[in-house]
Amino acid sequence: MLKNNLIAKSVRFALIGGAATAALTTAPTVFAAEEGDKVERIAVTGSRIQRADLETAQPVLSVQREDLLASGLTSVGDFINQLTIGAASINTQSNNGGDGSTRLSLRNLGSGRVLVLVNGRRWVGDGGSVDLNTIPSTIIKRIDILKDGAAAVYGSDAIAGVVNVITRDDFEGVELSAYTGGSERGDGEQDQFDISIGQAGEKGSVYFNASYVKTLPIWAGDRRLSREPVFGTGNTQGSSGTPSGRITFVDDNDNYNNVTLNDDFTYNGTNPIAPTYDADGNITNADENNYHTFTNDDRYNYAPVNYLLTPQERWSAFVQGKYELSDDVRLSSEVLFNHRESSQLLAPAPLFIGPWAGGAQSLDPTVVSAENIYNPFGQDIFAPDEDGDAATVGFIGRRMLEGGGRVFRQTKDTWRFGMALDGDFEFLSQDWGWSLGYSFAENAGTDYAEGKYVTTRIRHALSAECNADPSCVPLNLFGGEGAITKEQLDYISYNEHNTNGDTLINYSANLSGALVELPAGPLGVAVGWEYRREKGFDSPDYIVTSGQTSGNARKATEGSFSEYAYYLELNVPVLADMPFAESLEFDFAIRQTELENSVGLKNDNTSGKVAMAYKPISDVLVRASWSQGFRAPTINNLFGGLSTTFPTVTDPCNDGGGSLPGCSGVPDGYSQPNSQVQGQVGSNSNLTPETSESISAGIVYSPSSLEGFDVSVDYWDIQIDDRITRAGHQQVLDTCAGVAGETNHPVAEFCDQILQRAPGGTPVLFANPSLNLGSLNTSGFDLTMNYGFETSVGDFRVSWDNTYTDNYSVTNNEGVETKFAGEIGLPRLKSNLTLSWGMDDLSATWKTRLITDQRDDCRSAYADFDLCNASETDADGDVTYFRDLGDYYVHDLQVGYYFTELNSRFTLGVNNVFDEEPPLAPNQTNSFDGTQYDGTGRYFYGRLTVNF
User: Could you tell me whether strands 763-769 and 679-682 are parallel, antiparallel, or unpaired per DSSP bridges?
Assistant: First the structure.
């Protein structure tokens, strides 16, 4: 009974305190040893030097396992992104363009600028950054987040910070856990089951974990904001590719056709009669031919049949072992396997052909032959003129509803093996430690896609030659919904199969200890060498690489790079146990890195760091640091093949572009057919590493007179130069057209290479390559307060964590600065307040999360629907519309009870207690920003954990 009571009390205190420790900016201090005992020294996140005191100059946020359990989330990535330092990033709400992964961004600097470690060793990337779903949440003991640059210690990528996942190495016994949850609306169900087994002895320990997670989808049509292309606008902002088809072209009688079939038209196997027109261009025989002039009300609402939350399943197995080979030498190893199956679903594919369709279609439009048995117009549509010049006007847009939705499925396997030898020895009366490490990790993926079509087959099926080819099935684009038969679909459709993978090999050797004993303490030193090799490939389906797909074409990717690095780190104690100087110490670090990629391009980088920790009295810590960082271009940055995308843009050359100099030659009659235009993104093998400079300074106050209370304030400033980025398709269009204020943008010199237009005006070669483009600067403050106390009615813990972004600005190569703090995706303030209570075996946690107001661009067309609630007018009288999102509060509740006799714990929770809806942002997919807001709504869950 005594043992069970102790267990219960320990669990209760862990759960009460755990929910608040996420706000701690420094790790707890190691207890002092009794006189004569050897002080245990360990390495802390952000330093290679082993030390006894974990309270250092590094601002480290330490998240315990109990914090993750208290969140009710099954993904470690989702959990970290909810922290105030977390930022908008891709997750399982990313349906269009998502891949089932959950990425991590710190301080809005992007997932590629965060270094992810597991037990201090680099984790394998997936296309340039780490997918946090490859790390099972059930193996985590704690997560240390270094909120500072650390390239001098860890190398590339540690610009925004370092996330170090520490696995459970102290577990003994058997633990079974089951979790289930779902939204109030009966969708988005999640299940998680795991088992942990641990055994420890005098010479070593072993830990095993197996976990299974399954998430079911939420449909966009089942949420108020996302059931239309743009909330509150009906079909008017939908697609021109409709089930009835939109047909625009100039016929032989010089009539401009912009027509679609009537909604009540039923295909009966005969051709509809071509429309005729009066002198004003009005259809005169609408009753006979079932056509009418296309309007915005005829557009297709593709939103309801998309996923809002994408489904996936994950299986994982993890084994970790440690063994003492001798009193001074230890062997450790770990093996992980993680398997993910995920999918996304988009509306049935829109098929666009003609000179306004974009891409190759604009240069060499597909001709719909007059001999196509379904063509009602009696003429070749989009045929060249008498001089052989390609057609320049019109397109046909047909939603391929009969073929079903576009399904994208991923299967991803992640393997990781790590092994290390470490030991201790004494040299010149000082303690030293050494380690040799090796790790191998691999991501291997297979992607499948359904609901896509072969453009060469479509061209043939619409040609005159199809009638004489017994293997060809003529295609009916004119018969309305249901007119395309299974035989037609079988002829033009294909199933896509792509493979991809990333491999990481890492060797390291480290030596740390004390050189000499100084008056204020030992002079700590760490030196080491590291070798890293990364390689990756993406092998798309032949239909994709040859450009015959109706979806996004892309070329194959393959490449590698190697990194050799040497580092030196010093910890210099200057003062100790003096009036107004209980301690003063400085950390110095320098790292030399040599990079070489598979095409022979070499780069060298030297990164340095200086940090100070000063305690005038025992209750106060003053800390400051300056550091340099760098980020090597990823394999995708360097070697990624050109790929097709469909960005949403507004072409400044509509109607000829007026007086814009870059629109000369664009016909006056050119009209952008869709807001989504076909473009390309590409790599650049000449990219150089981006570099950074970080400054941080703060103070931590832990008054001895108020036990359980601490407060910290930190200022941070990060400058990134030669940043690796893309200008953006809209910026490319505006720059190359000569829009006012954009003519000096650094991509202007590339306009001839990255933007070409078809004779009809449509962009055809519309690239957005990776570039070293200008600089980025962000700065702000972190404020954290914690207070824990005991009362006669239970133990309480209050934690308040805040991140305020004062500046987020981008400067181009011409020195023009644009500020973004407060814009969509970049809130000024994120704040988390956690209240925890526990008494006997009962505990409860209430958490409030705040994201402050942001401003989103709002197209002028949305103003007619009262979606734009703010505007600005410039000196020329031009009006720019915005949407102010407003402050966003979400409240989460969890209660738990520990059953002492059964050694088990049961928790119930509600996330988003008041069913707060994401703020409306009409310019975003699903009319809200799914990278930072959750569209699930009120969510209930329960978890049962049993220990043996």
Answer: parallel
Residues 125-162 as b/e (b if ≥16 CB within 10 A, e otherwise) read: bbbbbbbbbbbbbbbbebbbbbbbbbbbbbbbbbbbbb
- Say if residue 11's pLDDT is above 70: no
Q: What is the DSSP string of 856-877?
A: EE--HHHHTTT---EEEE-TT-
Structure tokens at 909: 């929770």
Predicted TM-score (pTM) of the model is 0.89
Q: Which amino acid is at 393?
A: V
Give, rounded to a whole angstrom, the gap between the first and last alpha carbons of the chain: 15
List the structure tokens of 535.
């390689």
User: Are the C-beta atoms of 240 and 368 separated by less than 8 Å?
Assistant: no
Whether 392 contacts 667, CB under 8 Å: yes
Residue 442 and residue 124: Cα distance in Å, rounded?
Answer: 7
User: Do β-strands 679-682 and 724-725 pair in parallel, antiparallel, or remain unpaired?
Assistant: unpaired
351, 397 in Cβ contact below 8 A? yes
The two three-digit tokens of residue 691, written as one number: 């570099």
Identity at 149, one-letter amino acid code: G
Under 8 Å between Cβ of 501 and 512? no
Please name which of 88, 112, 95 lies closest in space to residue 929, comparing C-alpha atoms.
88
Bridge partner residues of 808 (DSSP): 778
Which is nearest to 644 in space by CA: 558, 560, 493, 763?
A: 763
pLDDT at 743: 45
Q: Which two tokens stand for residue 34?
A: 């009794």
Whole-number Å distance between alpha carbons of 631 and 150: 11
Taking phi first (over 0 means left), then psi (-120 to 50 degrees means alpha), and beta for anything else, what does residue 376 get? alpha
The full DSSP string for 101-164 is: -----BTTS-GGGEEEEETTEEPPPSSSS--GGGS-GGGEEEEEEE-S--HHHH-TTTTSEEEE
Which tokens in the block code for residue 771? 């570039």
Distance between CA atoms of residues 565 and 596, nearest Å: 12
Which pair of tokens denotes residue 705? 């007179």
Q: Tell me the residue type at 548.
A: Q
Residue with more model confidence, 33 or 928: 928
Residue 29: its pLDDT value, please? 35
Q: Are residues 657 and 679 in contact, defined by beta-carbon separation less than 8 angstroms?
A: no
Give residue 40's pLDDT. Answer: 52
User: Coil, helix or strand for 255?
Assistant: coil
d(CA 94, CA 105): 15
The three-class DSSP label of residue 287 is helix
Tell me if residue 325 falls in helix, strand or coil.
coil
Q: What are phi and psi of 737, to 5 degrees?
A: -85, -20
The more confident residue out of 483 and 31 is: 483
Which residues in 540-601 belong to E strands, given as ranges?
Answer: 557-578, 581-597
pLDDT tens string 81-113:
999 999 988 999 999 989 999 999 999 999 999
- Give the model's pLDDT for residue 814: 74
Please count the other Cβ atoms lying within 10 Å of the Cβ belonging to residue 399: 23
Report pLDDT digits (tens) over 611-653: 999 999 999 999 999 999 999 988 888 888 778 887 878 888 8
φ, ψ (nearest 5 deg) of residue 833:
-115, 125
Domains and CATH numbers, the chain: 9-217+310-344+555-640+687-726+771-852+887-947 (2.40.170.20)
Burial class (CB in 10 A: 0-12, 13-18, 19+), 936: buried
> Rounded CA gap, 916 and 887, in Å?
11
pLDDT score for 839: 95
Give the tens place of pLDDT for each residue, 409-419.
999 999 999 99
Q: How far is CA 925 from the centre of its chain?
A: 15
Strands 307-309 and 312-324: unpaired
Residue-wise pLDDT tens digits, 814-858: 788 999 999 999 999 999 999 999 999 999 999 999 999 999 988
